[in-house]
């Protein structure tokens, strides 16, 4: 179909602070995490880089941009889900029953003071609607990538959690003018 374009969604590299509910809580990316992201996108061709406004995405986008001669655009809509009162905590520090209710129904049982799943999907959908029809790389977060798949492919929660999205994971999609999509690539293997 004419008017289709490629969209590459890259999860930022491993942050220095791991094992936490990192939504708005930020952490620098490790050198290894940065290198994994830069290596992951080497074979790709894209004309534009967009990233969330969190340093773990911005640093990766800046490093990739320097290699490509591209200046990344920052868009806060590509942020991770806001975990509210849980943001920055380890799962072990959160009431287990409340955390399970969230995993089972992230819209009906959001973190206290946090964002509902449907709100994340809505802001990611808005960001997708504003994309220009050119091949782009979005450096973002695991939750935002899953929200994009919900928006573009219609996946339910069960399907969205049926695959792993480790740090430096890459999903490539063909986007049609009506903002539906087809997954054309998924890379989750370790990058060396």
TrEMBL record:
GO terms for molecular function: phosphatase activity. Gene3D superfamilies: Phosphoglycerate mutase-like. CDD domains: HP_PGM_like (cd07067). Pfam families: His_Phos_1. GO terms for cellular component: cytoplasm. This is Alpha-ribazole phosphatase. It comes from Sphingomonas aerolata.
């Amino acid at each position: 179909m004419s008017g289709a374009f490629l969209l590459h969604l890259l999860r930022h590299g491993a942050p220095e602070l791991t094992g936490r509910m990192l939504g708005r809580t930020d952490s620098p990316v490790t050198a290894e995490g940065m290198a994994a992201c830069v290596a992951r996108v080497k074979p790709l061709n894209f004309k534009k880089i967009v990233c969330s406004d969190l340093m773990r995405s911005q640093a990766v986008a800046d490093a990739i941009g320097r290699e490509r001669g591209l200046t990344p655009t920052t868009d806060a809509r590509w942020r991770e889900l806001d975990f509210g009162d849980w943001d920055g905590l380890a799962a072990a520090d959160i009431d287990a029953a409340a955390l399970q209710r969230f995993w089972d129904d992230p819209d009906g049982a959001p973190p206290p003071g946090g964002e509902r799943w449907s709100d994340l999907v809505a802001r990611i959908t808005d960001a997708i609607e504003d994309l220009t029809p050119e091949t782009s790389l979005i450096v973002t977060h695991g939750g935002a990538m899953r929200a994009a798949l919900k928006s573009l492919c219609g996946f339910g929660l069960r399907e969205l959690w049926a695959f792993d999205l480790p740090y430096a994971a890459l999903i490539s999609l063909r986007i049609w003018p009506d903002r539906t999509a087809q997954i054309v690539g998924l890379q989750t293997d370790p990058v060396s």
